[in-house]
Specification:
single chain; 237 residues; alpha+beta; Nonspecific Lipid-transfer Protein, Chain A; 2 domains; four-stranded mixed sheet; 4 strands
Amino acid sequence: MADFDFFGILRSELDAYAALLDGLTKADLDRQVPSCAPWTLYELTDHLGNGNLWVTTAVQEGHGRNDQERTAPHDPASLHTWFLSTVDQITIALSADAATEAWTFSSLMPRTVGFWQRRRAHETRMHRWDAQHALGEAEPFEPAFAADAVDEVFELFAPRMIQRGLATEPQTALKLTATDAGRSWEYGPGDPVSEVAGPASDLALLLWGRIGVDAPHLAWSGDRAAGEHVVRGRLVP
């Protein structure tokens, strides 16, 4: 894992998402979010805010249960205020030292506050992209941070999907090369039979299903059909 100030990134991303909500209308919140279909922007915000509250409980109470149902307000101004309240709560919960023990949803990674700082930084950044995409044009991820998002997929989510019986091991290996981050990854058995190269942001978005295999900044080589099969193999929830 790269050496990032994940807590600082998380705070910045939460602030950026909150700023995006400021001034939106009911019609804006009713927009579909194509990358999280069939959610609307309201439902995306409800999901992100309730995720903040869930992680707060996980850290402060040591469990992952959702003991109460919380529905975000539908009024745009009230939704903005509510989201800011969830930002305050998760910020307090995750301000502890990264090595502090905490409940998490997976044994594949250390069960610490640092896990959540990293996970929520990536979660919030991805959903800010989703919201921007729904409203117009989304900003690409910073290359090094995007590369860490790819790391997280292969360190945590892809093996967890297999562990949970929701995916199977790939039959062939795929190589991914970030043309702007000096990084590459191999996933699957043996030598790669295919490669996809492009900006780290696009690779992260590809793995999370935000863009398709035909996205213009991606370049495929080798057995493309086999590579596409790996990408479509339920690498993430």
